[in-house]
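Request from the bench team (R.T.):
"We need a structural guess for the complex before ordering more zinc ion. Sequence and SMILES attached. Just send the tokens back."

Command: build protein-zinc ion structure.
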Amino acid sequence: MVSNLFMLYLGSMSYYIAVDVGGTQIRVASYQAEKLEPLRLIRRRTHSRENTPEETLKQAIKDAWPESKPVKAIGIASPGPIDLAAGTIIKAPNIPQWSHFPAVDFLEREFKVPVYLDNDANLAALGEWRYGAGKGHHDIVYITVSTGIGGGVIINDRLLHGVRGLAAELGHVTVDPNGPQCSCGQYGHLEAFSSGTAIARRAHERIQQGVNTELSKVAHPTARDVAEAAEKGDRLAMELLEDAGKHLGRAFADFLHIFNPSILILGGGVTLSGRYILEPIRNALSRYTMSPEYLEDLVITLAQLGDEPGLVGARVMAESATIG
Ligand SMILES: [Zn+2]
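Reply to R.T.: structure attached below.
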């Protein structure tokens, strides 16, 4: 008992750094163990005239570092696929300089503490599991639908990585091989049908075809414009969201068959489009799931961690990797 209390005391003296690297912004936060609120939160533009992205990253970590406090580890959320074994970011969308960037080596050399790296959607899933919508669940499928579509899967309280850390690319499942080209270069992936980018592109195509819609008043309608137009009863906008939702729901039915989670957590801006996208998701799920048992106690809910799920997840990763 005494030793447990002692461990608890030592644990609360630990500090962690969490990093979320984005194409436009690098965010770094320092945390004290067991405390949810960051001590410091630093935001820097990823691209600047003065510095390379890695210099900016290093400086932002220094700025967030709690003075004369023992930092136990750094966790990093990468925007693109990573090589888990090598500790490298294979590629980061919008950071072309980072092709096979050895992020773990680079930061361990500089800061002399263990560095842990994972993909941002995986870490968002981990963050939701520990502090968000997934609390208390052991088997989770998390999908984020924004510019692209990402996913993270937790099975029996552990993130699913696969042999190289490339598992759970849930946006890159083939919905229709004759479909449009995906950001990854393949054709007909879910992301090419239902991401914010895909919704905006389809809106543009339909406007070009002369469809009568509120959206033709906007120069370059985004997925958010589509959601707002749907709220006002615009037929094309409703149709676009229904279509995106149908494809999502059909893919989710496959995810249920593969992972059998107790909760599906939906993150990202597009899922905030409300009933116009959530209802088709639910309808497609019940239509395409092969037996009702998959749906019986399934919770379908929106993510709770707002704008910082990757950052929270990076912190959970750093913390859980160094416990004990
Ligand atoms: Zn793809």
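Two things stood out. The pocket of zinc ion is lined by residues 172, 182, 184, 186, 189, 191 (CB under 6 Å). The mean pLDDT is 93.
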